[in-house]
Amino acid sequence: MINIQPYESPEYFVLILGLLLPIIIGLFYGKRLVNYETLFSLVFLVLTFGGDKWQQGVALIGYVLFELLVIFSYSKYRSKQNQTSVFVVAVLLAIAPLVVVKLTPLFSTNSSIIGFLGISYLTFKTVQMVMEMRDGAIKEFEPVLFVRFLLFFPTISSGPIDRFRRFKKDYQTAPDREKYLCMIDKAVKYLFLGFLYKFILGYFFGKILLPIVSHAALAHKMAFFHTGLSWPLVEYMYTYSMYLFFDFAGYSLFAIAISYLMGIESPMNFNQPFKSHNVKDFWNRWHMSLSFWFRDYVFMRFTFFLMKHKLIKNKLRISQVAYLANFLIMGFWHGVTWYYVLYGAFHAVAIIINDYWLRFKKTHNVPHNRWTEGLAIFTTFNVVCFSFLIFSGFLNTLWFK
Amino acid sequence: MNVNEIVLDILNGITETDFSKDMDEDIFTSGLVDSMATVELLLELQEKFGIDVPISEFNRDDWNTANKIIQRVESLQ
């Protein structure tokens, strides 16, 4: 059995665009070929999770069945009652498989047998369902639609993270011809931009430059009183940051382009993040589908809870506690290692300092011109790149290996 | 006080900005209202008008100006 990883090779693009043709022609004539689309999705799921990755395939099936049961039970319960404790249990159950997968590396050298590529992204989608059911925004349990939403394969491995009600609206109709042509137009643009980002720039920074600067930085392990702080390390920081952006933004563009061709407007993931004026602005531009998920399902709910129950009086303190919780959870989500958690904590502290500054700016007359804007962008860029150096895990290699 | 005044009052209390001059100014893109301020807004609306807007139903595009907030409040009352 063959196994093809999404968006990795030219063969994948040839295959996917070829098999997409009937869907594209159907949508062009205003028809969604549901049966063909199901078959098509199955083929790609088997290609991604089959072959030597068959264990992941089994894990995926088990995961979907388990989450179906959680959502089904909670929706049954929610149609009659609305206890907070049951809601909390439902959320904990929904994230339980992910927690097990993330904690396994702490206790074992093998990865968990219930893990598979994209489990964290599917968990975001499931938790979102539970939360919106709690709010009464999603009322009925639609198993077929839920599975389609969960397993929508263009975004299955690494997002962008869509919202169920948005997906449902797209999925239940076909876009009119004018709109669909516009979507094809964008899809073609995103595909080529994606090629440039992932296979040219991402490849250059990640596969050519990164090994060189990494080697140089490791050779300076003893520099600056044994801390390893050296110019090559600074070069590593910027190179890795560029690689991370182009690789991930490129991948996201592919996922969005394929979604568009299927008549689904998956949300954008990046909006020129290196132009951000401050850290807060950065999180509105970087990995947006993730940061908005955290904003809507963690930060806002947590602040709402704290304020409603008047657990903390001071508003500034509330936002600071919520930022810490928000970014620490995000850190742990990336993986239970000191550098991911520190990455989260670093961003929490950065955004808290940022908030103090914004408050100061409101009450004081701070000059504003293109030079100060340039300084703001420059500062933000460096803060962000430094956070990516933490995130890269390279310091772990440099200091502890 | 009518809905108009109460909403402007709430917004003024949260952002320390008077929106009565430009009721169509986008409160999110101007950076005056962030997620934290949004939650404050929702709680105040709940308290003053008794309307319940769950976070899931809060679509920023429907609530991004003083005028739109007033409209929403009036339709939900």
Automatic annotation (TrEMBL), chain B:
Every Carrier domain range: 1-77
Record keywords, A-Z: Cell wall biogenesis/degradation, Cytoplasm, Ligase, Phosphopantetheine, Phosphoprotein
Keyword flag NAD: no
One cellular-component annotation, GO: cytoplasm
One term of GO molecular function: ligase activity
Pathway in which this enzyme or protein is active: Cell wall biogenesis; lipoteichoic acid biosynthesis
Entry-annotated residues carrying O-(pantetheine 4'-phosphoryl)serine: 35
Subcellular location: Cytoplasm
GO biological process, one term: cell wall organization
Post-translational modification: 4'-phosphopantetheine is transferred from CoA to a specific serine of apo-DCP.
Family according to the record: Belongs to the DltC family.
Function text: Carrier protein involved in the D-alanylation of lipoteichoic acid (LTA). The loading of thioester-linked D-alanine onto DltC is catalyzed by D-alanine--D-alanyl carrier protein ligase DltA. The DltC-carried D-alanyl group is further transferred to cell membrane phosphatidylglycerol (PG) by forming an ester bond, probably catalyzed by DltD. D-alanylation of LTA plays an important role in modulating the properties of the cell wall in Gram-positive bacteria, influencing the net charge of the cell wall.
Official protein name in the record: D-alanyl carrier protein
Organism of origin: Paucilactobacillus nenjiangensis
